[in-house]
Fold:
Amino acid sequence: MKDKEIQSLKLTKQQLPQAPRREGHCRAPQPSPTALGFPVMAAQVPKLALNNGKNIPILGLGTWKSKPGEVTEAVKEAIACGYRHIDCALAYSNEAEVGAAIKAKIEDGTVKREDLFITSKLWNTFHSRALVTASLKQSLGNLGLEYLDLYLIHWPMGYQENAALFPKDENGKFIYADVDYLDTWSGMEDAVDQGLAKSIGISNFNSEQIQRILSKCRIKPANHQIECHPYLNQRKLIDFCHKNGITVTAYSPLGSPDRPWAKPGEPQLMDDPRIISIAEKYKKSPAQVLIRYQIQRQVIVIPKSVTKSRIETNFQVFDFTLSDEDIKVIDSFDCNGRLLHLDWVKDHKYWPFNIEF
Ligand code: NAP
Structure:
């Protein structure tokens, strides 16, 4: 990582005085031995410090929609080229295949368990306190791990328990459970006490819901994972989290073009001529600009890909710096363009998107 880049991240930090502390983990690419007997260049990804003293790599691999038949190879390729952070969830129904890749890369000597940062998420059908650690153990069993680095409440809304992952009535309407996410949070704290998760956090909460947790919790959330990209830059929610010592992870940073409900003809973030023009200026791809944008805002970013060449190029974002001017230009693309609105459950009392942030 270049001095210029470190400088730029420090400047970002000064603009966000209470933002989570950034660790000085930027190093030149380090050779890493492999079972093949020759070194590969696995660049060290910078890390952000969590509020419990642990660190999270600022770039990770997403796995939502990665098919079980593709994800093992994708995660193996990612770890081989330097990714150390993998974002998983029970609801993605592919944790076992992610776990197979982790096992293979530990067994071939590329990494040790402690080099990796593995996140998973508690699904909406397990919100009762007693179900939290049971569900976490199910994820650990799937992944073949003894602990998670980070466990998140996937959404604030609880769904009917002891049923399918997506419980619906005969009219196709989701069936809810009346569980307060504060009870769920107590279950998350149990998971830390039991050593099953090193850190805990939330996903898709609004600022009022976070404040409610902060005012009651014993262990503060370490991370908030939210949809974030130039069409929904989340400036206010990020500032709120950073002021409260909560790191933020940007999901769908490339605009999630493979989201199941995408309609033909809808605008695609990576095809936006304004993003393309900035990418051309830096001789980078639109995806690299979108990933780099989050990193310079001190936001952790988890692009998903199952394509080897994209997994590699999405990682090549530590050799250029977007100017402050270009960051401002990208910020100006915000249009409240939420892609994961889940408005089919907007009558749930904890649906989070009915206030400004
Ligand atoms: P994303 O990362 O914004 O976009 C993924 C899509 O972009 C895939 O279709 C992928 O195709 C394509 N892609 C990747 N790199 C590319 C490149 N360099 N050039 C062109 N296309 C590229 O979308 P996402 O999967 O919604 O979000 C990322 C991750 O965030 C998820 O996988 C998941 O881990 C997490 N997430 C969490 C939540 C939550 O509620 N907490 C919600 C959504 C997502 P290929 O795979 O075919 O290469």
User: Anything to note?
Assistant: Residues 62-65, 87, 154, 203-204, 225, 251-259, 270, 285, 287, 302-307, 310, 313-314, 340 surround NAP (CB under 6 Å). The first helix runs from residue 3 to 15. The radius of gyration is 19 Å. The first strand starts at residue 30 and ends at 32.
